[in-house]
Amino acid sequence: MTNIPETGRTPRVQTRLIVIQILVLSLLGTLGGRLWYLQIRNGAEYQKEASGNHVQQVVQPAVRGSILDARGVPLADNETRLVVSASRTDLLKQKDDGKAVLTKLAGVLGLDPEEVRQKVRLCDAKTPQPCWNGSPYQPIPITDEATPRQALQIRERAEDFPGITAEPEAVRRYAAPGKSNAAQVLGYLSPVTDDEIQQAKNTDSPFLRSDMVGRSGLERQYDKELRGKAGVTRYEVDNLGRVIGKAKSDAAEPGSNLVTSIDARVQRVAEYELDKAMKAARQQFDKITGENYKADSGAVVVMEAKTGRIVAMASAPTYDPNVWVGGISAKDYKALTGKDSDYPLLNRAIQGQSAPGSTFKVVSTAAAVEAGYDFNGNYPCTSSYSVGGQVFKNFEGENFGPISLGRALEVSCDTVFYGLADNEWKKDGGINPKKGQPKDYFFRAAHQFGLGKETGVDLPGEVTGRVPDRRWKQSYWEANKDAWCKTGKKNGSYVEKIAYENCLEGNKMREGDAINYSIGQGDTLVTPIQEAVIYGAISNGGTMYTPTIGKAIVSADGKHVTEIKPKPHGRLPVTQATRNMMDEALAGVATRGTAAWKFAGWPQDKIPLHAKTGTAEVYGKQTTSWLATYTKDYSVIMTIAQAGTGSGASGEAVRNIYSSLYGVQADGSIDNKKALLPTPLKSLPKIQADGSISAPKITGDPAKDQEKVAQQVNQQGDTSQGGNQTPAATTPTPTTGNRNTRRRRRGTRGRRTTA
Amino acid sequence: MTGANSFSVSGYGPRRAGWTRLLARDSMARRLDWPMLLSALALSGIGCALVFSATRNRTEINQGDPYYFLLRDLMNTGIGVALMIGTIWLGHRALRNAVPILYGVSLFGVLLVLTPLGATINGSRNWIVLGGGFSLQPSEFVKISMILGMAMLLAARVDAGDRTYPDHRTVLQALGLAAVPILIVLLMPDLGTVLVLLTIILGVLLASGASNRWVFGLIAVGVVGCLAVWQLHILDQYQINRFAAFANPSLDPAGVGYNTNQARIAIGSGGLTGAGLFHGSQTTGQFVPEQQTDFVFTVAGEELGFVGAGLIILLLGVVLWRACRIARETTELYGTIVAAGIVAWFAFQSFENIGMTLGIMPVTGLPLPFVSYGGSSMFVVWVAVGLLQSIRVQRPMSA
């Protein structure tokens, strides 16, 4: 192609020109190749990056669903407040960056203009509060307490307030219907954390910076359902954040409503009665400690026996959940969680655990029957039971002679169970069990009764309780032996002696451990909810239901209803015949046993009531009172720490709860009109398409209505007592029952005792 | 040897009238390199559209008038084309006589930039503001005057038939002539232009037939020079940053690497056919700085896609290929050197400009010939086209 003669070009130049040409075209080829690589091969990746670059999201928060009681009365709902917000994007479009508008706005709202300006500036390392730390594309709230008049002023003159909106917005409210509180059951909300945002980033329900998240109770358990889905509008913006177009918008989906099995009125009665019982206990003198009972915490559970649904659950001390709304103050927070607080955030119905005391005897009875002892056999109820120099006394040294297991339940005879447990312990080989698996009937029964593990109630943070069986002893000893062996002294103080003994054989099941265990003392721990499940199961014929508070999840428009069905999770290890006998014995507890003095005049023929009292020793503290009861419909458990005996501390309160449930009047008659819930409610409240809920109004205070009835009962009780002690001579008198369930020195925990 | 006669027929022959003259086999119109001319016009046309797309929303620089930059770009292109016609009319040989003046004027221009009359834009003292929104970039004119000056010196004795290749003394003189403006531009400092000028020297020396020793020597000096500059910290921090960002664009995506990153996102997101003119979100959102000038290629990449951006590269290829042909086909060394210098200039500047938007070259402030917005650049580029056309018009007829 080169033509030297024609151009007169020297070969050197000609060659170099060709080299230049090749070089130049290959450079362009390189560009083309690189262009292909970026646009065709990696195009999709860059397209994604580009859209991330210029799309900004504006979020409309979804309205959180309400938490309703069984009849539709809102326990937690939203109240509308008028929120005035400023859009930074719109303000920045104005010539003075919106200064004039904000000043005018401050005038209307009666705020300091400087403060309003500070509220809309963005937070960074150098900017102190107040400042906005959310997305700059999100409207920034100036106030959530605007009056309708102020809002109207702003909205009517929208052209004077470009970028300012006055909209009603939903704020959480814990309505406390009928003065019920249920703080620990409902839980609370607090703003989402950065970590949570990161974690939920790529899931199907990502968090928004403005989101509130359920932190405990039902708010947390059903957070996802209640929260709904925020609406997102995607705007295309330029590099300065100015909006240049709307890309996509999804409307907000309001959260679903949670219908619970709680009845606000029963909840109120339970709370009131618990509080009253605790106050009453504080008036009682504790002979052992030489001071009044402290009664510092307590819990009540009212559960439907045939379904496991919770009708009421109260925990004391409690607090007002509304302190969380709109951000909790540092002072309030300290009062709820600080070292000096009484930890009102704890739901003691599921997070409080203590030894069950004699309420555990139903487990021991079942274990004895399982081990082959005849329910109706004769077992000596002596005044004391001696083992190797240790004396385990019976209740106030009483001696009932040979009695059946049923009678032993009724009168809460400890020595009967001591004997049976000791027998079994010996059969299993004593302190060094025979080769092969020891039978451990008493411990196995506890596990079969669902102790030592969560009941699975639909609340977060439930604790397991504890069954102090061989395995637990071994692991507990391994964890503590070093400390025990270091501090233990053979002839030292009480604590040092215990440590010495524990160091030597704390990993073994000692005779005293087995004996003590049989009456619910020692290291056994149970929660009120576990007891509710057990006594509910005895009531319904032996099925243990997983307790539930949520009954149904209903979409905001009422169209989609997801029912939460009762779910059995096990059966009691008792035959039908044994159950029937236990049932009869527990009815006896209420009519002629340890609880009878509190249930005089109860219409037992119409509403058979069953009960078991318990008084648990706690080392270094006053006794924990337990009262476990049931009818054919409900099981009601009440426990109060440092309050003495079960019947003494809680008898009246539990009776009042039943009275209000069934409408039992002072004279023992039943007034169905006054009954709050004579049979468990099966139907669900109706939710209309527009989101409104048809719920009955609760007028007055259900607890106060009950109070009147209760006062009449007390008056009658006083007169009847003056006459004869009706039910039976075997009924312990109130005085002995109250005072003498505990008859050992303080500090005998874990070794000998009872009630 | 028809070449010898060809000088007499090139446009200065006997006068003919009207169309016949225009369409005659030896007429100017028939002898023009139309593929190059049309490609160059197409590039400028595309450039106007891209500049319009990039600037119609930039209210902070277009004084509220979306057409501000479009109109000016069209005007610049018009002036450029007129300058080309003037250049063809005068002929590169006639200009040869004016080279000392052109060289002197452009040298004066770059010196003037260093005086208080010069203005600093983007870290480089590169501009003379004329007022009324007009400004000049004298370093652009240096490119042309340097090519012409060196070509004049190197080709003088060869074209006179005294020698086959320029001797060492001539080469030294030519290098001296080039060194003066390069040093001045280095003081501005305008690293991009310095690189272009050095590339031009290489192209010019290659085409002049100067001994290989000069060529390789110059390359060696260039390499050593670069190392020295690097080691002795002669570069400003911002220049070092640009190189750092080139080596690792994710280094500081909000700062140094921002340009590179956003440019690459813009181009990459274009895909095969692009978002469509005026529909690129990166462009509309103004995420790429300097998008109407140095980063104009990103608009093409995003809005016209691989097809449109590839077309720009293809059209540049046509221009360069035709320019190479012109360099090879002309008989006089002067024309060859001028054409080769222009090829080196266009090729390097295009490669560097597009390369930096694609992330394969470091960022320097160089416009993309024909496409970028900018009067001075547009004028000299079209003058260069005029020179190439003139060389072609006056080449031997048999080609």
TrEMBL record, chain A:
SUPFAM superfamilies: beta-lactamase/transpeptidase-like (SSF56601), Penicillin binding protein dimerisation domain (SSF56519). Residues 298-658 form the Penicillin-binding protein transpeptidase domain. InterPro entries: Beta-lactam/transpept (IPR050515), Beta-lactam/transpept-like (IPR012338), PBP_dimer (IPR005311), PBP_dimer_sf (IPR036138), PCN-bd_Tpept (IPR001460), Penicillin-binding_protein_2 (IPR017790). It is a single-pass membrane protein. One of its GO terms (biological process) is regulation of cell shape. One of its GO terms (cellular component) is plasma membrane. Keywords: Cell inner membrane, Cell membrane, Cell shape, Cell wall biogenesis/degradation, Hydrolase, Membrane, Peptidoglycan synthesis, Protease, Transmembrane, Transmembrane helix. Residues 740-755 have a biased composition (Basic residues). Residues 686-755 are annotated as: Disordered. The chain crosses the membrane at residues 17-37. NCBIfam families: pbp2_mrdA. This is Penicillin-binding protein 2.
TrEMBL record, chain B:
It is an enzyme of class 2 (transferase). It is found in: Membrane. The keyword Transmembrane applies. It catalyses: [GlcNAc-(1->4)-Mur2Ac(oyl-L-Ala-gamma-D-Glu-L-Lys-D-Ala-D-Ala)](n)-di-trans,octa-cis-undecaprenyl diphosphate + beta-D-GlcNAc-(1->4)-Mur2Ac(oyl-L-Ala-gamma-D-Glu-L-Lys-D-Ala-D-Ala)-di-trans,octa-cis-undecaprenyl diphosphate = [GlcNAc-(1->4)-Mur2Ac(oyl-L-Ala-gamma-D-Glu-L-Lys-D-Ala-D-Ala)](n+1)-di-trans,octa-cis-undecaprenyl diphosphate + di-trans,octa-cis-undecaprenyl diphosphate + H(+). Signal peptide: none annotated. Its main location: membrane. It is a multi-pass membrane protein. GO terms for molecular function: lipid-linked peptidoglycan transporter activity; peptidoglycan glycosyltransferase activity. Pathway: Cell wall biogenesis; peptidoglycan biosynthesis. InterPro entries: Cell_cycle_FtsW-rel_CS, FtsW/RodA, RodA/MrdB. PANTHER family: CELL CYCLE PROTEIN. This is peptidoglycan glycosyltransferase. It comes from Streptomyces naganishii JCM 4654.
